[in-house]
Amino acid sequence: MARLYDSRKRILVTGGAGFLGSHLCDRLLAQGHEVICLDNLFTGTKRNVDHLHGNPRFEFMRHDVTFPLYVEVDEIYNLACPASPVHYQYDPIQTTKTSVHGAINMLGLAKRLNCKIFQASTSEVYGDPTQHPQTESYWGNVNPIGIRSCYDEGKRCAETLFFDYNRQNGLEIKVARIFNTYGPRMHHADGRVVSNFIVQALNDEPITLYGDGSQTRSFCYMDDLLDGFLALMGSDPEITGPINLGNPRELSIKELAEAVVKLTGSKSEIVYRPIPADDPKQRRPDISKANKLLKWQPSISLEEGLKPTIAHFKDFLAGVGKG
User: Fold this and answer.
1) If you write DSSP's letter for every residue of 222-253 in order, what string do you get?
2) Active-site residues: which are they?
3) How far apart are CA 246 and CA 19, in angstroms?
4) Fewer CB within 10 A of the end CB, N or C, for the chain?
5) Long-range contacts of range 303-308, CB-CB < 8 Å, 24 or more positions apart?
6) Which positions ≥6 away from 228 have C-beta within 8 Å?
7) How confident is the model over 232-256, as pLDDT tens digits?
8) Phi, psi of 60 (to 5 degrees)
């Protein structure tokens, strides 16, 4: 049962040592809350939360969400799951387990505590979309047996579980569908285009584009995304989602590569490789629902967001060189 004796909340963040999770821990601590950062460190790293260990309101717990967890908290943010193709395809069975068993375990915990729970879902639930831009009412075009299915279908099943717990048990849920997000603390080897391009550019290596580079994405800076997380979590109980959170500015992968080369001053050339299976040709969120219900829209431009992201990778690569 949720505690009633003060306004400070004890909040569980699963996947809390990851890219987004660690920044969310920062935000929640800055608001005065207590934070339990839960992570099995498969893709997360202690380096992302090292700066928090001196904070008496911060607790790190190494644990895998596919196993039950017994803690007392007031809110849960469920971010645990490898989110890049390189990582989620490394062990696809474990990826599906993390999405499905992890959701079951966290929902069970939330039910026992009667507390609000947030699910970090994904734009991958739309698959290779036939609707553009993608609205929340679109059911998607997903291959259920492809190499990306462990993530796509795992997240779709997690959404099913969240809404069934809401309907059957009256649990207060918040489901966000996250579109491509970038920023400091991204994993340097996650295989995503932003991190790939920046690392290649800083090393003056060829920048690898798959296909002809005309496929499009929409890139949201992590500060904007976290504003959306907090707005959704703080919204009225009847606002369950799913709600798209992302930047509706659409650009081609080639345009992103050219922007990275320009901002890094790199000598890298662009090279082309065959496109991977089931790679979506276009991806852009319709965020009218988030704008209407949460008064949310991103404000940080790609160029503004790339600068601190590039600085992060410069520091990381310099540290690797010293090591």
Assistant:
1) HHHHHHHHHHHHTS-TT----EEES---EEEH
2) 151
3) 16
4) C
5) 303/259, 303/263, 304/221, 305/182, 305/183, 305/219, 305/221, 305/222, 305/223, 306/182, 306/194, 306/198, 306/259, 306/260, 306/263, 307/263, 308/183, 308/184
6) 176, 243, 245, 290, 294, 296
7) 999 999 999 999 999 999 999 999 9
8) -100, 135
Q: What is the pTM of this model?
A: 0.92
Q: Whose structure tokens read 């590569």? A: 257
Residue 302's pLDDT is 95
The Cα–Cα gap between 164 and 183 comes to 33
Nearest CA to 245 out of 256, 230, 229 is that of 229
Q: Are strands 75-78 and 10-14 parallel, antiparallel or unpaired?
A: parallel
Q: Enter the tokens of residue 183.
A: 């920023």
Rounded to 5°, angle at Cα 178 from 83 and 310? 70
70 and 115 Cβ atoms separated by less than 8 Å: no
* DSSP calls for 102-134: HHHHHHHHHHHHT-EEEEEEEGGGGBS-SSSSB
Select the more confidently predicted residue: 12 or 129: 12
Contact 12, 77 (CB under 8 A): yes
Taking the CA atoms of 266, 271, 274 and 279 in sequence, report the sign of the dihedral they define: positive
- Partner residues linked to 270 by β-bridges: 207
In this structure, are residues 253 and 216 in contact, taking their beta carbons and an 8 Å threshold?
yes
Quick one: DSSP state of residue 181? E
Tens-place pLDDT, residues 73-121: 999 999 999 876 777 788 899 999 999 999 999 999 999 999 999 999 9
Are 179 and 220 in contact by the 8 Å Cβ rule? The answer is yes
Backbone φ and ψ for 56, nearest 5 degrees, come out as -65, -15
The phi and psi torsions of 272 (rounded to 5 degrees) equal: -115, 140
